[in-house]
Amino acid sequence: MLENAILVTGCGRRIGFHIAQRLFEDGYTVIAHYRTYTDDIRILAEMGITTLQADFANSAAILNFVTEIQTVCKSFRALIHNASSFEATSDDLAAAADQFDQFFNIHMKAPYLINQGLQPLLMGEKDDPADIIHITDINVENPTPRFDIYGTTKAGLHNLTMALAKKFAPQIKVNSVAPGPVLFTEMHSEQVRQQMLAETLLAKEGGAEPVYLAIKALLTNPFITGASVPVDGGRRLSKR
Ligand SMILES: NC(=O)c1ccc[n+]([C@@H]2O[C@H](COP(=O)([O-])OP(=O)(O)OC[C@H]3O[C@@H](n4cnc5c(N)ncnc54)[C@H](OP(=O)(O)O)[C@@H]3O)[C@@H](O)[C@H]2O)c1
H/E/C letters for each residue in 113-155? Predict the structure, then answer.
């Protein structure tokens, strides 16, 4: 049975994979959640990281995950909610309704139920509080209309950060990390990439490591809660 672990959701690729790997390298016990089994999950498992599958598609699946994780781990140092779904809002209303359910479940309901369900098991180090960290997006402050359902549900997660910071104090700190353009996806055309970089003060795609460094800073700082740390190269100031 694991103790004092850090749960990271959405570790099957990209930023989640990087966070799990880096936490492990830094000496934390890590549980890596994934939806789809990938080579990256295989690599994490081969490193000795415990991996756990779940699709946060509905309440029952999320609640099952909360029950299942307690059979492998009896206390948690931190919960890091990275799992996410990212796509433009459909023009078809019925499809948009489905997207709303999907984004709501993954960005808001899963973090809420997991945090609430595991809260009694979250333990800090010595006299310091434990941590919950939500990975949000700079869209929560300055929305992109084409991605309004994605952004709105991420904004709900941003609000949950502040609500739970109040609710779980002083035993648990609750903070957000809000990335900007850290890793492009295949849906970003060359033209869109150039526009995003032109709007980014530090003029580059940041990569996953700056997200990890923000997480590490929050984990190691005992006096920050209810805060949102932007990791966006300054794009929130100039994004149209
Ligand atoms: N990349 C950026 O530049 C950027 C910018 C702003 C914010 N962010 C935020 O940073 C975080 C990581 O970004 P990323 O680009 O690495 O994300 P990503 O490539 O979209 O990966 C998201 C992960 O979440 C998992 N996931 C999706 N739907 C799920 C579900 N229903 N149940 C459980 N897991 C599910 C995915 O699993 P599958 O493999 O099964 O799909 C995937 O492993 C996200 O929260 C994102 O919103 C990223």
Answer: HHHHHHHHHECCCCCCCEEEEEECCHHHCCCCHHHHHHHHHHH
Domains in the chain: boundaries: 5-238
| Residue pair 176/135 in contact by the 8 Å Cβ criterion | yes
- For the record, the structure tokens of 18 come out as 């990087």
Query: 126 CA distance to ligand 1 centroid (A)?
Result: 33
Tell me which residues have their CB closer than 6 angstroms to ligand 1.
Answer: 10, 12-16, 35-36, 55-57, 82-86, 106, 135, 137, 179, 181-183
Respond yes or no: is residue 34 known to be catalytic: no
* Atom 16 of ligand 1, residue of closest alpha carbon: 15
**pLDDT of the chain, 240 residues: tens digit per residue:** 999 999 999 999 999 999 999 999 999 999 999 999 999 999 999 999 999 999 999 999 999 999 999 999 999 999 999 999 999 999 999 999 999 999 999 999 999 999 999 999 998 777 889 999 999 999 999 999 999 999 999 999 999 999 999 999 999 999 999 999 999 988 888 998 999 999 999 999 999 999 999 999 999 999 999 999 999 999 999 887
- 5-238 belongs to CATH 3.40.50.720: yes
Residue 88, φ and ψ in degrees, nearest 5? -65, 150
Yes or no: say if 230 and 136 are a contact pair by the CB < 8 Å rule.
no
The Cα 41–Cα 107 span in angstroms is 21
Q: Which of 144, 196, 133 is nearest to 7 (CA)?
A: 133
Residue 217, SS3?
Answer: helix
